[in-house]
């Protein structure tokens, strides 16, 4: 069996402004740093974790570093497979700006956005590699809202037809005998 804790990075200014971030490398803001510290404090009081794997984007790396310092795992392993969906031309825009520029049906236009199926496949393949490589371990993965949500929909489609992942929420998956189970979803009880 393996336990995987999926954590979305702390909040950024673009999150606060409602802008699509995608693979744009936007840092945490002060609130995001506090959120990362708060989940680090929570994890310190709960069960031990063996390692942290993080996306290569700075908002995830910084979140992972803050958590790691709190729980005694100061170095994180970086894996590009858990980076956020590439949002193509919509990166840096708000919903209102997208509607103004491309109309209310902008989602039906090819704006260079990575396909949801490709993102969910990437997330699933990453998790399957983790299961094979780290049997019996407890792994934290600091990633992004769309990657986590789409991966959950891929792994457990009956349970997750829709998802929403809050900043610094934790979702815990267990894999036993090649079967996935989600024992905690989008939990933010550490945020005050």
Biggest sheet strand order reads: 3-2-4-1-5-6
Biggest sheet character: 6 strands, mixed
Morphology call = globular
Task: Supply Rg.
Answer: 16 Å
Q: Termini, distance in Å?
A: 33 Å
> Level of helix content?
25-40%
Count of helical stretches: 6
Task: Give the beta-strand count.
Answer: 6
Order of helices and strands: EHHEHEHHEHEE
> From the helix content, strand content and strand pairing, which structural class follows?
alpha/beta
Beta-sheet strand percentage? Answer: 15-25%
Mean pLDDT over all positions: 96
Notes on the structure:
The chain has 192 residues and is of the alpha/beta class. It is 38% helix and 18% strand. The chain has a 6-stranded mixed sheet. Helix 2 (30-45) packs parallel to helix 3 and helix 5 (116-133) crosses helix 6 (145-155). The protein is globular, with a radius of gyration of 16 Å.
Brief digest:
With 192 residues, this protein is an alpha/beta fold.
Q: Which helices and strands appear, and what pairs or packs with what?
A:
Layout: E1 2-8, H1 13-17, H2 30-45, E2 51-54, H3 58-71, E3 77-78, H4 95-102, H5 116-133, E4 138-143, H6 145-155, E5 170-176, E6 179-187
Parallel strand pairs: 1-4, 2-3, 2-4
Antiparallel strand pairs: 1-5, 5-6
Helix pairs in contact: 2-3, 5-6
Question: What key attributes describe this structure?
Answer:
single chain, 192 residues, alpha/beta, 6 strands, 38% helix, 18% strand, globular
């Amino acid at each position: 069996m393996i336990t995987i804790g999926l954590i979305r990075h702390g909040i950024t200014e673009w999150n606060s402004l409602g802008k699509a971030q995608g693979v744009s490398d936007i840092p945490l803001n002060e609130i995001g740093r506090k959120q990362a510290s708060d989940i680090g404090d929570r994890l310190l009081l709960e069960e031990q974790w063996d390692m942290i794997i993080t996306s290569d984007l700075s908002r995830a790396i910084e979140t992972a570093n803050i958590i790691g310092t709190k729980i005694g795992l100061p170095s994180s392993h970086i894996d590009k497979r858990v980076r956020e969906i590439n949002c193509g031309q919509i990166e840096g825009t708000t919903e209102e700006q997208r509607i103004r520029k491309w109309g209310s049906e902008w989602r039906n236009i090819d704006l260079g956005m990575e396909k949801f199926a490709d993102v969910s496949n990437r997330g699933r393949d990453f998790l399957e590699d983790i299961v094979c490589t780290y049997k019996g371990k407890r792994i934290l993965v600091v990633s992004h809202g769309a990657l986590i949500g789409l991966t959950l929909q891929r792994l457990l489609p009956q349970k997750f037809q829709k998802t929403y992942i809050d900043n610094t929420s934790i979702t815990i998956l267990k894999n036993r005998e090649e079967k996935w189970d989600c024992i905690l979803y989008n939990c933010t009880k550490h945020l005050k």
